[in-house]
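testing teh design pipeline on a random one, pls ignore if ur not involved
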């Protein structure tokens, strides 16, 4: 069965299962080698790359739909998710399916809810679905080298802006860094997201004052210089900060 036949078959099934005109597009950011990544799928049809999005069943809540979509399309579970935007330009999905007639479910006008998530790529065993050639983490600075479908580049850019704004009111790092990390590694994560260098002394003082870190009785060994202290996140305080926002930042 070729990719067009797959889509036609799924269209007939979708009309009885999913809500029309509403979809979800989660933007899952990862951090690796001091660079940001985003999780993408390459569809069999037209060989273009998209976010691992999907449709909402008639019998499920929106948030539950996003959890299911990520599990089915990419094999990801337990990701922290939050809404960040709505995308509804006309012809945003219709043009992509121009090879089909207007009765195709996928070709209808869809309003998409954007979800933002942070995830450690080393914790994932990605599983592509049967309509995709690949499921992979793509570095943000390499997105210009791939053919991205619909308005998904716009959605990614908006998600990054949202993440940069979020830093001042919510903690980050729990799903991006290893369990044990140095302050320097945490600072590099913030600098990568913000796209600028931060003063080390100011950053260390502010991040310690947030109360979301636990200093461990061990150091990072193996470097040429003095071994830096290791830290982990205080899960209880981190979750409180997620819920209530940060103080003293």
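output:
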């Amino acid at each position: 069965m070729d990719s067009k036949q797959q889509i036609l078959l799924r269209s007939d099934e979708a009309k009885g299962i999913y809500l029309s005109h509403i979809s979800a597009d989660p933007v899952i950011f990862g951090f690796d080698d001091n660079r940001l990544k985003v999780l993408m799928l390459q569809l069999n049809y037209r060989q273009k790359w998209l976010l691992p999005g999907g449709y909402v069943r008639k019998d499920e809540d929106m948030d539950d739909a996003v959890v299911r979509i990520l599990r089915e399309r990419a094999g990801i579970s337990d990701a922290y998710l939050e809404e960040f935007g709505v995308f509804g330009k006309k012809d945003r999905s219709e043009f992509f399916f121009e090879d089909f007639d207007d009765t195709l479910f996928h070709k209808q006008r869809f309003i998409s809810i954007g979800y933002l998530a942070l995830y450690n790529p080393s914790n994932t065993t990605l599983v592509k679905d049967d309509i995709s050639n690949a499921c992979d983490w793509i570095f943000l600075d390499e997105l210009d080298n791939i053919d991205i479908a619909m308005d998904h580049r716009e959605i990614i850019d908006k998600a990054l802006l949202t993440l940069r704004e979020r830093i001042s009111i919510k903690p980050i790092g729990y799903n991006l860094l290893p369990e044990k990390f140095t302050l320097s590694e945490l600072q590099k994560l913030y600098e990568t997201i913000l796209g600028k260098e931060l003063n080390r002394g100011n950053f260390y003082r502010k991040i310690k004052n947030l109360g979301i870190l636990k200093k461990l009785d061990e150091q990072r060994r193996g470097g040429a210089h003095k071994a830096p202290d290791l830290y982990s996140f205080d899960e209880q305080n981190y979750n409180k900060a997620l819920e209530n926002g940060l103080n003293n930042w």
